[in-house]
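Blinded run. Sample ID left blank on purpose so nobody reads anything into the name before looking at the predicted structure. Input follows.
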Amino acid sequence: MIEGVPAAGTIRVDAQDTTTVISLVGEIDAALRDEAGACMGVALVSGLPVVIDATRATFIDSSGIAFVLQLHLAASAERIPVSLLDPHRVLRDVLDMVGISDEMLPEPAAPAAPTAPTVSV
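Blinded prediction complete.
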C-alpha cells in the first residue's frame, strides 16, 4: 500500500514443475512494490523459465514496467528465459513504446493435438 491506499491489483508467483508463472492482476502500480520484489526473488531462485501472465492486468504504470524490465534483465543475466502471455496487450503495447517488446518472447501456444495420419488410396 502507498499512504494507506489499498492496492487495486496483485502480483502472484506460482513455481510449477517446468516454469515459474508470475501473474499480474488488475492495476499494476507502485502500491505493489513489495509483492513485485518477493515474486522476483522466487522466480530467480527457482531457475526455471519465467512466464509473465498479464492476461488479467487492466493497467500498468511505470513502476509495473520497471518491475517487468528488472525481472527480464535479472533473469537474462542468469540465462533464465522470460516469456510474456498478454492477449490483451496491456503490457506488450507499453513495451513496444519503449522499444523492448522484441526482447520478451511471446508465450508459446499450446501444442496442437496430434492428428491421425492420412492415407491415400
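Unblinding after everyone has recorded impressions. The two ends are 69 Å apart (CA to CA).
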